Amino acid sequence: MENSALRKEFVQLIAQDQALIHKVCSMYCRDPEERKDLFQEIVLQLWRSYPSFKHESKVSTWMYRVALNTAVSSFRKDSRRPHHGSLSEMEIDIPASPDTSAEYELKIKYLYAAIDQLSQVEKAIVMLYLEEKSYDEMADIIGITKTNVGVKLNRIKAKLEKLLTPVYDEIR
Question: Mind listing the domains of the chain with CATH numbers?
């Protein structure tokens, strides 16, 4: 395929599925500038690997795999990343009489704080689970067996429940 046609096809692909990349960036970076940098790095890695993509899997599976590998690699290299304290150490502004939307937003905030405490693989599995990917799709993207996805997902849910139960009890 001619280089300009390849470039045009790639740009269309990124435009079509950029939400997938943004989700990966949001899962691994809280700072907007870090998210932008990670987005650019993921697109660069996708571009580098695009000519060798054989279309043996779904495009979204390939994109998730490259994006997650890039995010994990970037995370390991990033020594600037601040340490995240435990949930009990976080400062929280709880309104005196929260309405349901404020309570919901607070729960989401805690959920993301708990997800930040997971390993890189666990974060990837949670993100794919929240995207409602099947166990087969998750296994293809992460590179583990379908059974292992189920085992890891159950352990992750238990870990998140352990982290979040005391916090959610306080909110109620």
Answer: 1-82 (1.10.1740.10), 87-172 (1.10.10.10)
In angstroms, the CA 67 to CA 72 distance is: 9
Give the tens place of pLDDT for each residue, 63-118. 999 999 898 887 666 544 454 444 444 444 434 444 456 777 787 888 888 888 99
> Inter-axis angle of helices 59-77 and 120-130, to 10 degrees?
150
For 25-118, list the strands marked E by DSSP.
Answer: none
Cβ within 8 Å of residue 71, ≥6 positions away = 24, 25, 27, 28, 38, 42, 120
The number of C-alpha atoms within 13 Å of 31 and in the hemisphere containing its C-beta is 10
Q: What pLDDT is attached to residue 163?
A: 87
Mean pLDDT rounded to a whole number for the chain: 82
